[in-house]
Design a protein that fits this description.
By secondary structure, the chain is mainly α. It has helices spanning 28-74, 77-101, 114-130, 133-138, 141-150, and strands at 4-11, 14-21. A two-stranded antiparallel sheet has the order 1-2.
């Protein structure tokens, strides 16, 4: 088919590519083959476009269904949050003593003040509670984040 002659030339901090396309003779067969190939490509693109339209309508339907489901479930959000908060408080009460005992052998860092060490110990205590299997398995992560980090639901026993 087409032959391309390329020449590269450095110019400043760039390289210039000069191309020359040589004339090509097309036989009647080449013309017909090219037309058929281009028509097939066009047909394939139209098919792809049609498929995209179908996919788009499917995605729109799925989005509508998700919106309906969210709206239906949102009616129970406050109720679920109240139950989760209550359950979280109960689980914290259940696991806090074992988490405190995990820190019995805590060694105070001599480079920190007593308050800094107590704060470090409290953070470790809180992490033990947060990673407890019962809490992780039964409480929604957003509830944990809000109630423990933003509302500071776990009291500091080292104050």
């Amino acid at each position: 088919m087409n032959e391309i002659d390329r020449k590269f030339k450095k110019e400043g901090d760039s390289v210039i590519v000069k191309q020359t396309v040589k004339d090509t003779k097309l036989s009647p067969k080449d013309v017909l083959d090219s037309i058929e190939s281009l028509e097939k490509s066009k047909e394939q693109l139209n098919t792809n476009l049609s498929n995209l339209d179908k996919q788009k309508s499917t995605v729109i339907e799925q989005l509508e269904q998700l919106s309906i489901s969210i709206k239906d479930l949102a009616k129970f959000k406050d109720w679920a949050q109240e139950i989760q908060e209550s359950k979280l408080k109960a689980l914290i009460d259940e696991v806090k003593d074992s988490c405190l005992h995990k820190l019995d052998d805590y060694v105070y860092d001599k480079t920190l003040t007593k308050e800094q060490n107590n704060l470090q110990k409290y953070r470790m205590y809180r992490e033990y509670i947060l990673r407890d299997e019962k809490i992780v398995g039964e409480i929604n992560t957003t509830i944990i984040k809000i109630k423990i980090f933003e509302k500071n639901l776990i009291e500091n026993p080292y104050k």
